[in-house]
Amino acid sequence: MAAATEPVLTPDAVTVTTDRMGRLYAVIPDDVARPLTIASHKGIDPEARGIFFESDPHPADSWAATTVRTVFEAVLSSPLAAEDNHAWGLNQYRKYDGGTFYGFIVGESAWDANTRWWRDLARTRDLCVRGNATIATADRHTLAGTCTF
User: Fold this and answer.
1) How far is the C-alpha of 7 from the C-alpha of 10, rounded, in Å?
2) How far is Cα of residue 127 from the mean position of the Cα atoms in its chain?
3) Of residues 22, 15, 30, 19, the one with CA closest to residue 75
4) CA 125, CA 41: separation in Å to the nearest integer?
5) Cα 134 from Cα 102, distance rounded (Å)
6) Mean pLDDT along residues 116-121
7) How far from chain centre, in Å, is Cα 22?
8) I need a labelling partner for 9 at 20 to 30 A (CA). Which of 28, 33, 95, 147 fits?
């Protein structure tokens, strides 16, 4: 369960946009992006190299899973996601209550809406959620609803 100090994300607070290459982004408030970025790194060795690493699973009722579901709902209600038949990986979420978002989740201060590109990545890395947010589908039994990145 979410602690009283953890920020609550609402779909209205998520800006769904694309970068100049057409990739989908969910831009969220910084106070939500920071702890979500920390959650996305949980269980990954900071010295690990490469891209094929998955965070520790976050329980279905955790703050991270609840926040990711809110991002998914915001993305799915966006006209930008409707342009793609597969809704950026979230078509499964609509049908099976789980899926993977193949876009990016980033804090507001890390995103430049005018250039549609990252701001100083070295300074805003703490606002860039790592990997692809995933909610395990209902058929995964005990893992159903868990969140990984």
Assistant:
1) 10
2) 11
3) 15
4) 12
5) 9
6) 92
7) 17
8) 95
Residue 12 confidence (pLDDT): 97
**Tokens of residue 90, six digits:** 């979230």
**Residue 105 clears pLDDT 60, i.e. is over it:** yes
What is the chain's Cα-based Rg?
15
Structure-block tokens of residue 31 = 């106070």
Tell me: the pLDDT tens digits for 48-98?
Answer: 776 667 789 999 999 999 999 999 999 999 998 877 757 688 888 888 889
Site of tokens 């049908």: 95
Residue 141, pLDDT > 80, answer no
| pTM exceeds cut of 0.85 | yes
Q: Which one-letter amino acid corresponds to residue 70?
A: T
Q: How far is CA 144 from the centre of its chain?
A: 17
